[in-house]
UniProtKB/TrEMBL annotation, chain A:
It comes from Marinobacter koreensis. Its main location: membrane. Coiled coil: none annotated. PROSITE patterns: ABC_TM2 (PS51012). The lineage of its organism: Bacteria, Pseudomonadati, Pseudomonadota, Gammaproteobacteria, Pseudomonadales. Keywords: Cell membrane, Membrane, Transmembrane, Transmembrane helix, Transport. The chain crosses the membrane at residues 163-186, 218-239, 245-269, 276-294, 306-325, 337-355. This is Transport permease protein. It is a multi-pass membrane protein. InterPro entries: ABC-2_transporter_component (IPR051449), ABC2_TM (IPR013525), ABC2_TM_bact-type (IPR047817), ABC_2_transport (IPR000412). Belongs to the ABC-2 integral membrane protein family. Signal peptide: none annotated. Residues 118-358 form the ABC transmembrane type-2 domain. It is found in: Cell inner membrane; Cell membrane. Pfam families: ABC2_membrane_3.
Automatic annotation (TrEMBL), chain B:
SMART domains: AAA. Keywords: ATP-binding, Nucleotide-binding. It holds the Pfam family ABC_tran. PANTHER family: ABC TRANSPORTER G FAMILY MEMBER 20 ISOFORM X1, ATP-BINDING CASSETTE, SUB-FAMILY H, MEMBER 1. Residues 4-233, 318-547 form the ABC transporter domain. This is ATP-binding cassette domain-containing protein. GO terms for molecular function: ATP binding.
Automatic annotation (TrEMBL), chain C:
It is found in: Cell membrane. It is a multi-pass membrane protein. This is ABC transporter permease. PROSITE patterns: ABC_TM2 (PS51012). The keyword Transmembrane helix applies. It comes from Marinobacter koreensis. Belongs to the ABC-2 integral membrane protein family. InterPro entries: ABC-2_transporter_component, ABC2_TM, ABC2_TM_bact-type. The keyword Nucleotide-binding does not apply.
Amino acid sequence: MNGSRLLAQIIKELLSLLRDPRARAILILPPLLQLMIFSFAATLEVRNATVAVFNEDIGQPAREFVADVTSASFVGHVIMVHNRQQQDELIEQGRALLTLHIPEDFSRHRLAGQPAPVQVILDGQQANAAQVALSYLQAIAMEQGNRTEPMVLRHAFNPNLIYQWYVVPSLSGILSMLIALAVTALSISRERELGTFDQLLVSPTTPLEIILAKCLPAVLMGFVMGSVMITAALLLFQVPFTGSLLWLAGALVLFIISVVGIGLMVSAVSETQQQAILGVFALAVPMVLMSGFATPVENMPDLLQWMAQAIPLTHFLVIVQGSFLKSIPADVVVSHLWPLALIALVTLSGATLVVRKRLH
Amino acid sequence: MTAIALDDVHKAFGKTRALKGISGEIAAGRLTGLVGPDGAGKTTLIRMMAGLLKPDSGTLRVAGLDPVHQGMALAESVGYMPQRFGLYEDLSVQENLKLYAELRGLPRDDYDATFEKLLDFTRLGPFTKRLAGQLSGGMKQKLGLACALITSPEVLLLDEPGVGVDPVSRQDLWRMVQALTGEGMAVIWATAYLEEAERCEDVLLMSDGLLRFTGEPGELTRRLQGRCFRLKGPHEKRALLGEVLARDDVRDGTIEGDRIRVVMDEGVDGEALASLGDVESVAPRFEDAFIDLLGGGPGGHSPLADQMPDVPELKDPVSCHHLTRRFGEFVATDDVSFNVRQGEILGLLGPNGAGKSTTFKMLCGLLKPSSGEARVAGLDLRSAASDAKLKLGYMAQKFSLYGLLSVRQNLTFYAGVYGLRGGEKQNRINEMIDGLQLGPLLDNAPDELSLGFKQRLALACALMHRPPILFLDEPTSGVDPITRREFWTHINGLVGKGVTVLVTTHFMDEAEYCDRVALMHRGRVIALDTPDNLKARAGQGASMEQAFIHLIEEQDDA
Amino acid sequence: MRSRRLFALIKKESLQMIRDPSAILIAFVLPVVLLFLFAYAVSLDIRQLHLGVVLQTDSAKAQSLAAEFSGTSYFQVLPARHRDEVTPLLVSGELKGYVLIPPDFDHRLARGESLIQVVTDGTQPNTANFVAGYARGVLVDWLADRGLRSPIKLDARFWFNPEVETRKFLVPGAIAIIMTMIGTLLTALVVAREWERGTMEALLSTPVRIPEILLGKLLPYFGLGLIATLGSTLLAIHIFDVPLRGGWGTLLLVSACFLVPALGQGLVISALAKNQFIAAQAALFSGFLPAFLLSGFLFEIDAMPAPIRLLTHIVPARYFIESLHSVFLVGDVWPLLIKDILAMLAIGAVMFAIARAKTRKSLES
């Protein structure tokens, strides 16, 4: 290993990334824009839902129940219907998330202290939203006519269940992963297509130096962008931070290195830039899906859960979410850091071997 | 009959004025060369004739049509072959032909006859099922030509069809084109390669967006009658060339085997050179006239080489023994052995697909031999550590530069990659900037620069660590004669300092600069000798190109 | 327009498509992977949530409530005696919440006070909602069984998807994602490739007209898109158990209508970006990500802030996903489908108008 050779290559990689103002813009602006849009868009909350009410009862308890439902925070729009056909049509055409059918004997049952059935039809096409809405309805139903609620509910770490507290830290991981992948995927395949890679290979530089030099700027780029987004989470979105910034920064570096390793692997194997682009794309989508961002890892079949452990993002999401909200203890962080280190080691040595094999 | 008429045609791209008022006529039934150095505006003009660009001002008529307003009709009567063939690499030869036949509306009944004629004409008959991407450069050119010829257009536009084509394939191309003009077609052949221009019936000579000469090439050549000489001196030829070019009364000079070809200033007699050696008068060539018209060749002095120290003695600079490389069943390099002596230029010459590149890559350690060995500075590059690579400078095809870095940053990068640091690094970089006149454009990106400048920059990058051995892979492909002369001035200067050079090339005049030429064919070295001896084998007064074709055909017949 | 030239171009494009491994990867391999992941990996179905039950009294009633929690398939219960046992597990993520049954449970029950405390892991709000909802349901049922409260009994029915399996709406949605990739990403790449390789220049010098070039690109990918839809649908029905309640004809019709804006977008991108890298980036940012995030595929459009809701109206995938859900799970609901089809065709028309205006038969930039 030779310091000045390595330094020259690192400077070259940084310049190729950042010298051109348009390339700089393409690299930096979209992720920030995405953070802004997706932080608001990526939500599994139920808000502004359309609810249809078919009330056949004129009694006071029925009117109170309807009033409570229509004023609930998840409801945005209420449609009063007057027959069953109308009610069914709304669900069929996807115009209402749920309909509430209150039969004419509802008030009578309530006043007699008997269980009073209410029919709820939910749109199963929107399975998640329907389930969440149903649980809200249940809470309203439980409160009816009671002074004290039988169940005291507390949401730890995020008392008001603000979705952005979950999404924004997670997005910082996902987006910095995508940046690091995009930067590295092309780094070797572009040089190969332009012929400069041969020029490098005939110089005294070693495959390890080539890989390291390609690694560092991408890590730097990913780390800076990740940090910017974490800062945005702190300052702009006001997500509370309870963990250690130092641990998080360390985890971010290790996470980016492991992602860069994957990107360089793909780049080293690809013959052309197009292959590299599509290859990285074909990897990135499953990685995001299986990372536990959209849905918890525990919900997956065992085999997929096991595969998810090989995805850097899975581990980083636990760390970043924990650092923000849960004051995650150091030993838990460490238990997710060593898999990251292992992935980085395997992919980076893999990429070095592929480059070395080209040479011999 | 006039096929194309140009009247004061202007075209600018942003601030760059590509065409500054071109007027002229191109006759039907004749082969017209569109000649000029890089950046002269040849491609812009030819694209305009094809209706792909519009003139900013002025008019042109192609086959009696106005390309701007009658584009559709124009497309029916013009055949166009762009610089990059326009072939679909993942379609077969037959499929490419059929596609263009359909697009150009060839009647279905004529298919078989036309395809048969074209395949016969291009000698591509045996390869109809092969994918275009797997054809050699020369075969691609011929297929591209066949596709442009499907419906016998009135005007055929060929943009640098000779680039990357070996002499054997080029001869095929000429044969095809000459047959076409016989049928009354106007053929326009753009080229920076003057041996090609010389064979055209008419030429339009462009430089810097202006038309400098129109007419028969012989007319221009005749102007140099009595000014061209061949000089054989007692001294080493490269030193002699330097001496000749340093004179005030010399317009141009090049190496031809053992001798120097000299163009004298107007009114100066060849006897003025008698003090340097034996002088004989020779017939002028178009290239001589071209250089003369553009203000004469560059000087013969390389400031770059001046700064280089003498290379200490080096045993066995480059050698290979029984070098063989197979790709599956295909033997790309077959039992090749040769040595290059210190301070020698060895040229690797051969038709497309002869195994030049494979051999070259094995020699500089980019490819592993299947058997045999290659040594550089007495070391096997595959196993030798970085130290061996420090002895080697490499200039890749197409001048592989980092397009995203500025000129200065490219230089700094290569200095760093070869382990230079501190003051030494800065000195070397400055040396290169001064020696190769890179100064004025240091902050531009290489992609914005002319081919000639890129070539100098690539040379600077390859020489940064002062290697005693230099590998050049097609160093002047697509570059005009003036730039090529500048390049060889530097190489000659370096060889004078004891640098050993291995070069692959398609250009026959480049072969003349070599001390010895290894002619490759079908993976084997079929001849290894000095240029003069090779020419002698093809008969008295043969050119390098004739020698090349002769030796290849001799081999094929055997 | 000459049909002969058009057929020649279509044939050329189809041959190239078949011979290009990356097209096969995007059109056939990636869809299978995606469908598989959406069927099995990305499940919003919450089953077997890890829940701690801290039982701080040994009273029979409290134990029967604890047993009720263990008895439901929604929870996988970790019994505990003290809060300190479960809080660290909540931090490490091993528990999604815990229920605290206090020492004075019987006393509270008698006096009608609040009975239990439920604490969820709020870092994953969606899961937290499910834990709260299911816990509430268990408690309500337990109270009702004892006649202690006479609640409003919500008789909930999920239409079209009675078992509330997210797979049934994710798999049809995934088809929209796949079609976006084929329509937009592949089309953008193949046109950019013609510019990069110089074949476009040769094509432009022939008598071919611009609409012929555009259609020659589109029709093969249109066909590929429909074939991929058919394949994905067969997989969805036979392997992933998603019902197809509408007609095959309707399915093909809405798919065909979606391909119009998707392909149009690919053409617009390639008309503006003549290099594969930029084309790929643009296709990802303007095609793939909106189809994923702004289409109602995973995230409810209704829950987004107004400006973003407005933005979703120009995402063609939004209409396609709505139609697909309807055709797969409900049936041919024409009022809805016609509205969606018109929206997709309108966006498509705009895209084509832009593509046509931006593609010129010359090399002038």
